[in-house]
Amino acid sequence: MARGKSLIFGIMVGSVVGATATLLSTPASGKQLRGKVKSQSLEWKELLLSLKLDGLRLKRQIAATSKEGVGLIKDLTQEMKNSVTEWKQSVEPHQQNIHQYLEQIETSLKDLEEKVNSSNKKNA
């Protein structure tokens, strides 16, 4: 931000010096010179006022945009939380079913192992 201010200040000072040098080096009467200086100063005042107003508008626009961004981020965060909660609720019953199936398979394997062991003992 400091660079922008110094750049604008440098441009303004350079313009004033250039305008003054031009006005003083041109052959004109004192009355004409004063008229030119007065009109030039009015133009500079209008330009500075315009720059100031543009800066204020930009500042307000940035503030409004940042507030909108914060609101959008909050909404997005809430939607993501809701989606995760819904996903957990839909997956949880399936996890329990899978766990039950795995227990049944484990029990069946133990029963099969016992049958194989008892069959091997009978054959031996």
UniProtKB/TrEMBL annotation:
Keywords: Coiled coil. The keyword Endoplasmic reticulum does not apply. Residues 95-122 form a coiled coil. It comes from the Bacteria. Signal peptide: none annotated. The keyword Transmembrane helix does not apply. PANTHER family: GENERAL STRESS PROTEIN, IG HYPOTHETICAL 17707. This is YtxH domain-containing protein. It comes from Ornithinibacillus xuwenensis.
